[in-house]
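Standup notes
- HV: blocked on the assembly model, inputs below
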Amino acid sequence: MKTIALTGNPNSGKTTLFNRLTGSNQYVGNWPGVTVEKKEGLLKKEFGEAVITDLPGIYSLSPYSPEEVITRDYILKEKPDVIINIIDGTNIERNLYLTLSVIELGRPVVVAVNMMDEVNSTGGAIDCDAISKELNVPVVPISARKDINIEALVRTALSCDKAVDLSDKIYSDDALIAIARIENLISEECKRCGLPLMWTAIKLLENDIRIIKQLDLPADKQRAIDDIARGFESTGELGDRETMLADMRYKFITNTLVRKHVVKPVKPGGESLSDRIDRFVTNRILALPIFFLIFSLIFYLTFGPLGSFFSNALDILINDIVSQAVISMLTSVNAKEWLISLVTKGVISGVGGVLVFLPQIAILFFFLSLLEDSGYMARAAFIMDRLFRRFGLSGKSFIPLLMGFGCSVPAVMATRTLENERDRRMTIILTPFMSCAARWPIYALFISAFFEEKRWIVALGIYALGIVVAVISGIVLKHTVFRGETVPFVMELPTYRLPTLEGTVLQLWDRVKEFLLRAGTLIFTMSIFVWFLSNLGPDLTVVQTENSIFAHIGRIIAPIFAPLGFGNWKASVSLLTGLIAKEAVVSTMGILYGLESSAAESGGLVPVIMQAFTPQSALAFMAFALLYVPCVSTLATIRREMNSLKWTAFTVAWQLGMAYLVSFIVYNVSRLVI
Amino acid sequence: MKLTNRYQHTLILRSSMLTKLNGLEVKCLKLLKTLKDLKPGQFGIVTELKSKGPIKRRLIDMGVTPGAKVYVRKVAPFGDPIEINIRGYELSLRKEEASHIIVQSCSSEEGK
């Protein structure tokens, strides 16, 4: 089967095209060896047979950003049969820069000029045939959003099999001579590393640190290359090789392609719609009020009446209707009592306890993806950058941190948009302090037990505590571990676009599916595991919970938590199972406190909790639950994204330390106050 | 910091020049400034990048190369970063980065 790779700038409509090409036949898989998930899908049947790989949205193939390295490594190693390079017709000049870099990689390329409908309707024009002649690759005008010309694109891609070489057209004679001389020097090493000769030579001339490292040339050859590069630098006025080569590419784009074959849209009144929206949204005075309004609204809808309504409805469905039905069914077939207990108290309450958050997570992610698709997220980063820099972060950290309120796993993955390692690490460490949706039931339980009349104050307070701890951590880390220069911030502010329902729904479905999968596998297994540990003694016979394996473990670790006010074994064990999933804290408490009613139904737990905790220890417990190490899924993601055991360990240590410290302070201060 | 100081005071280019931008004759001043010193609503032509390493590469890749026309659109609410229009799209960058980009400040009736 043919393999087609999809590349393009961020905001070029790549995801929309991917959805058009694959329909619902997509799956997310792990990229072997690298730290990124790739999205793959089968081409829709009516189009033909091929596997489509969606590569990360990038601006170039520089050696500095992880996503760009991934893309070029993928193309070089996996050698897809053809690459579809999607470019934004309304922003063609910069988009074509990536096109030239992709063509250089030596695979067959088809260029898809997207958003042609928009180009035409604003009075612009792009002569795709002429550009195709200049580039020597097929250029197909499309509109992914309006589903125009997609079939022609696929047909072209499936029949395209020749790679082209544009170097003669792009580079100056001096550059070409330098490239040829480097080629002569490195042909052997290139073959050994399996790299395309010409491309590698260009990269060496550009001083590409990764390629230099990968080739590991003998010192004399490296010196010879440096000499060639110096000679090349002296031929131009710009003075350095990177700028000179980039300049030639841009000159080729402007002089040969854009100036001759593109008519730029005549802007009516000089301002585009985007500019007019931005007059308000990033306005010096209005920006912040609009910002807070948008996010308050989202949080209100997610955790307020709308989200609670759906969660409660689901709760009743699972814990009353389904649970009762299962009990009566099991009773009718004379099932053993322990089996009924395992199924209802273990599985249904464990998995159900997680499922009830599905509506809230879905609502939050629905709004986040709306904001992301519309282009507002970049504005939020633009507005917040100055503020975030004080905490050692960048405006771009805003998006991952915000997603952290939904689920830390996608949030940590979203840090990939930060090109700088230091910013990325810092953001990853701080993201789990944003209270994810799975921690809400813990607060809900304790609030119902102790702070019913101050419900909103305590709830907001706990979320604020997470943010405050993140800010303090940021400031401390900035001046200690991450000391050094501030890193640059360069970010595109994409044109506002109306999100498509289809795109939003597909993205939402991806997240929901992942969540359901987790509930169905990890949480399911864990619930059974917890049930056994809390019902079996060390000799593996059925015992009272008081004598279970869990009780033994819990009694060992409980003293650690004594200074925090909750040094009892049940609380300790709940926190331990919370490592597997934060939702499990409440469901474990349900199982441990041996309730008749279901564990997830917080109402039933309330009286028991009121006996086991004091208001002060409840606050300390909530603070600890908020701040301590996130669940294993998040930890696994952090490990993968950090790509370093040392940094993962540091993250865990930092979070545990903060949790213990803050919880201790909360307990002791509240004892004085309340 | 050294760079900023050096270019804060505008340098004098040898001759004034006329440049064609978007089919429009615009007069570019003899003065060289940093991009940071341009006010919202002003525009200029990039003449040199003083940045180093990854950030330089990133700027180049984003189209901030000598000869490109930049228009400063606005400053963020907290005073940093700035938003510029270059090669037909909107780019935001911090003043720190902008202070390493040398531009020739231009004037024209089509500035906005």
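- HV (later): unblocked. Chain B has one domain: 2-107. The two ends of chain B are 31 Å apart (CA to CA).
- Next: hand off to the docking folks.
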